[in-house]
Amino acid sequence: MKYKLLILLWLPLGAFGQQGIHFLEDTAWEKVVAIAKQQNKMIFVDCYASWCIPCKVIDQAVFQTAIAGDYFNQNFISYKVQMDTAKTDGPERIKYYPDASKLKVIAEVVNFPTYAFFNPDAELLHRFVGGTQDPERFIAMAAEALDPERQFYTLKHQLENTSDPDRELLKHAAIAYQRNADSKNGYEEKSRSLASDYIKKSGTAELLTKENIDLIMRYTSSTAHSGFTFVLDHVEEIDAIAGNDIAMGLIERCVFKSVIDPALSNDEALDWRRLKENLTGLYPAYATALLGKAKISYYSKKDNWPAYILAVNQMINSGSEWDTENNLANYAFEVYTHTGNKNCLREALKWSDRSLKKDPVSEERLIINASILYALGAQKKAVEVLHRAEEMASDPEIKAYIVATLKKVRSNLPLLERN
Predict the structure, then answer these.
(1) Backbone angles phi, psi at 104, to 5 degrees
(2) Looking at residue 393, what is its pLDDT?
């Protein structure tokens, strides 16, 4: 009875009847472990810093909700530990600096927030860095601490003690390593390597699922990754499962990182002919589109809008529909926001008109179209297009933006502040 009374005294004031997670704070670590042992619960440790904005956002968005409170209060003893020192810290906070320092080392805390999970014997079993503002998603991530097949340090130990990990171990470990990546431990690259091994050990039918395609998209970042080779060989199947241009989007990202960006990084050595030959040799089916995207990206960064116009028109005329039709409105908007050159704006208007033929009910595309029309002096047409956008808009914020834009156009006020 006396021990139970001590446990009650250790709980923070206001914990009873309080919505959200009941955290112990400014409490000795050994007392937290004693409570965990007595209740046979794991310990959830919120490792935060006084200056950490994401820590405070997650505290408000997740920890103070009833759904998080119900789950964590039932399954964990929760402990909140400030890992830095602040001038505003009082005597009670300062007294537990040594505990915070010890936990910082044990839980390998580098970035904030870090969330650590210990068993009742104070053994670290699970951890993840960062988090989410979605309470249900955060709960799902925390639930992995209760599952030996998902606990990070259990998976890490299994990997270190096998020379031939199976597919499931590789998959779960890849996810766990990515969630534990910080600025120093190299776990991000480790997660990509594990995912690559998982892909190599999987059959085509096994990989052509929505879940595994999502995994491939998340962990593939270069042409050297096995995920890239798989996507390159199964573009149509992947797009049929995950959506149009999903596969091509990954191909573009990887080729840019591995081939195009290095070629564009040195103006003096830039050779478009050599880059074209390189892309044609490596990826013949996509070379024209990739080269076009490379030129568009390069001239945008150089603020060379006449050359940018030429590059986009070359893409259109090449017959390469991948990404071009979908991005015409974006290309038009980029020209509009960066140059007042009338010739460039006229070409951008053509792209905008073409994009509207494909999607005439897009408020965004209508706004872009009206903005370019206004920049070209076609005030009356701009007002007509904005009225169409206003009629279609269902989102209150978008409608308010359209109304404000209409007011400026009618008053002959500038929509952009150009240098």
Answers:
(1) -60, -40
(2) 92
